[in-house]
Amino acid sequence: VQAEIESKMEELRGKAKEQSKNARQALKELEATRRQMAEALAPGAELPDLATPETLDSLKSDDVLFKIEVVKEQMLKMNPDLTALEAYKTKTAEYETRVRDLEAATAERDKVRAEYEGLRKKRLDEFMSGFNTIGLKLKEMYQMITLGGDAELELVDSLDPFSEGIVFSVRPPRKSWKNISNLSGGEKTLSSLSLVFALHYFRPTPLYFMDEIDAALDFKNVSIVAHYIKERTRNAQFIIISLRNNMFELADSRDLQDGQLHQVGGDQPLGVCGGARQP
Known about the structure:
Layout: H1 2-41, H2 53-58, H3 61-77, H4 84-146, E1 150-155, H5 161-164, E2 166-171, E3 178-179, H6 185-202, E4 207-211, H7 219-232, E5 237-241, H8 245-248, E6 253-254, E7 256-257, E8 260-261, E9 263-264, E10 268-274
Parallel strand pairs: 4-5
Antiparallel strand pairs: 1-2, 2-3, 5-10, 6-10, 7-8, 9-10
GO molecular function: ATP binding
Protein name: Structural maintenance of chromosomes protein 4
Coiled coil: 85-122
């Protein structure tokens, strides 16, 4: 599901970029059309300066009449551009077409952006739901396995959970909080198994292979882990390579010859523990 969401989001990013590019191009074409319309309506035209009350008072009637005659002669010599109106209509139609193209590109961009944001929210909601469920179950598993410890998962960046990662910290019984990288071998094993069991609770896997997970554990912790696998994971099968007899004692299936564990690959006995029996 996560991969599908990532793929869809990448596709939407591409569509959003394309629509933004189309919108910018439409704006450029609209600006060019506007300039052409202005030039077609009055090419090279300049507005005369307006007269003020003071300049009007200073004019003589003869001067005014003379200027009127001059203006009339200039008007008669003018050749109006009769194609300007048709050009105006053409440019107006082109302008309206560009406006519609811009509106369509903007609407498509907004649609893609909304779909993209919806997928981002869905990914975040599903991730946080799983993260919180696994975090609560991790506390329960670690407390049960260690008989009193505590564990937690913490987002490095709570505002953007996908940018930095997750910190896994534990507090073994009668000790302070530590990052998992600073634990001893046995403590790391118990912490890792607690996380595996929490993940199994959230999204079960039918089959697990584990190689000497109890090598760094004492007798008490081996028994705790073995009993948990035996009693609490009946919807999965665990195949475990182990050297510890108290792990074999709880196995549903053991490879024995004359009452002795059969040696697999030299001195590696094979034990199979789990609630899901195979025919």
